[in-house]
């Protein structure tokens, strides 16, 4: 495919280089045929601040063809070169092959053939302006970039949703663990408080029993002392 593309560019470029060199070397050969066209275009040329002299325009057209053809031959900036050559081919074709102005049938037919050939060249140049050497067009790249961006946005949304769900689950687990820890702490504290109360109750009960034993012992000793005193009064000595 690359070989065919190179061959096509070479054929087109060589043709326009040859034609442009002829126009630069011998512009008078083309001035007579080009003058009716340049005269009709003089108003538009003046509005665009371009020269209206026919010989100057013929030379400028020839220079465009030489430069564009050389770019096609070398494969440099081929699309702009093809566009420039297509633009230069239209006025030169109208000036060189006005078959509609011919009254002689043979000359008219000959001019029609030449005009059709140039239109074929114009079609080839227009095709060359769209040739990207196998690279995708801007429209294709834009379309596929939009699709890729849409896929990435969708994937980002799914990823965000999954991350949110994971975060919510982690938060729930943390809350449950915190609740369990609080419950365990509260239960442990309640158990310690119950144990302390029980120990305090036991201590109080023990103290009460000790007081009862002491009181009982004191009463017993008091009774013994009373009996001893009575016994002492009853002794004869």
Automatic annotation (TrEMBL):
Biased composition, class Low complexity, residue ranges: 197-208
UniProtKB keywords: Membrane, Signal, Transmembrane, Transmembrane helix
Transmembrane is among the record's keywords: yes
Leader sequence segment: 1-23
GO cellular component, one term: membrane
Pfam family, one: DoxX
Membrane topology: Multi-pass membrane protein
Name of the protein: DoxX family protein
Species of provenance: Virgisporangium aliadipatigenens
């Amino acid at each position: 495919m690359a070989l065919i593309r190179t061959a096509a560019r070479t054929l087109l470029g060589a043709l326009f280089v040859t034609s442009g060199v002829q126009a630069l070397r011998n512009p008078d050969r083309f001035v007579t045929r080009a003058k009716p066209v340049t005269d009709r275009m003089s108003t538009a040329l003046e509005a665009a601040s371009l020269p209206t002299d026919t010989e100057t325009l013929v030379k400028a057209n020839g220079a465009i063809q030489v430069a564009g053809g050389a770019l096609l031959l070398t494969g440099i900036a081929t699309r702009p070169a093809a566009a420039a050559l297509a633009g230069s081919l239209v006025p030169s074709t109208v000036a060189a092959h006005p078959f509609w102005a011919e009254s002689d049938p043979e000359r008219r037919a000959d001019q029609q053939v030449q005009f059709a050939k140039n239109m074929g060249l114009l079609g080839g140049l227009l095709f060359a302006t769209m040739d990207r050497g196998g690279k995708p067009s801007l429209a294709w790249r834009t379309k596929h970039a939009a699709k890729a961006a849409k896929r990435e946005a969708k994937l980002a949304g799914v990823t965000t949703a999954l991350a949110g769900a994971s975060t919510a689950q982690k938060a729930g687990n943390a809350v449950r663990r915190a609740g369990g820890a609080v419950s365990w702490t509260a239960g442990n504290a309640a158990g310690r408080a119950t144990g302390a109360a029980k120990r305090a109750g036991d201590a109080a009960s023990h103290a009460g029993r000790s007081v009862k034993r002491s009181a009982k012992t004191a009463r017993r000793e008091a009774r013994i002392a009373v009996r001893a005193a009575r016994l002492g009064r009853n002794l004869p000595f």
